[in-house]
Write a structure and sequence with these properties.
Elements: E1 7-11, H1 30-44, E2 48-53, E3 82-86, H2 97-103, E4 108-114, H3 116-129, E5 133-142, E6 146-147, E7 153-154, H4 156-167, E8 173-175, H5 177-181
Parallel strand pairs: 1-2, 1-4, 2-3, 4-5, 5-8
Antiparallel strand pairs: 6-7
Length: 182
């Protein structure tokens, strides 16, 4: 694992992500891996940040007050853990997250959650650009099927791998749960 002051950033693990309306996804074991990491962070007394998407669209699964907006039962923050609410994909935009990390002298981040190609990628890019030593845990993130710009179907795994490829090296180090925990 990284140093004692490495923050685990858990992005958008809300009930809406586990509904059929969210779409077909990859990495069915992602939640289990996130839970393993969360337990390890808690046991070590390391900082944990939960990020929740607060949609601006009343029709969204993530509209405040909707069941889909709530954190998944297995990933509920403790009262001692920081919660960041965001309205866009990037957890650093208009949330105070950067300041919260700097005040605590946190320089190393481990990012997990959903979706790899949206909020995970956007947050990891900003983290890297802001000078944080950033890791993204590939098997603790997932994506959904989508169409590319030409209307060709892309599987969730293809979308996931493309996003991780975009991050590797320049913005973050991509690794898996086992490598991080050992």
């Amino acid at each position: 694992m990284k140093n004692q002051n490495t923050a685990l950033i858990i992005i958008d693990m809300q009930r809406g992500m586990a509904t059929p309306e969210a779409g077909r996804r990859n990495n069915p074991g992602a939640e289990e891996n996130i839970c393993q990491l969360l337990l390890a962070w808690r046991a070590a007394g390391r900082p944990v940040v939960f990020v929740r998407h607060m949609s601006r669209s009343p029709a969204s699964l993530f509209w405040p007050g909707q069941p889909g907006n709530e954190f998944q039962e297995s990933l509920l923050p403790l009262t001692s853990e920081h919660v960041v609410e965001k309205n866009v994909t990037d957890a650093f935009v208009n949330t105070g997250l950067e300041r919260w990390l700097h005040v605590r002298a946190i320089k190393d981040l481990v990012i997990v959650g959903v979706s790899t190609n949206n909020s995970v990628e956007a947050t990891a890019r900003s983290a890297g650009n802001l000078g944080f030593n950033t890791s993204v845990v590939a098997d603790a993130c997932f994506s959904f099927d989508r169409l590319d710009l030409h209307g060709k179907p892309q599987t969730a795994e293809e979308v996931h791998i493309n996003a991780l490829t975009n991050l590797q090296g320049e913005y973050a180090t991509v690794l898996d749960t086992a490598a991080l925990l050992h």
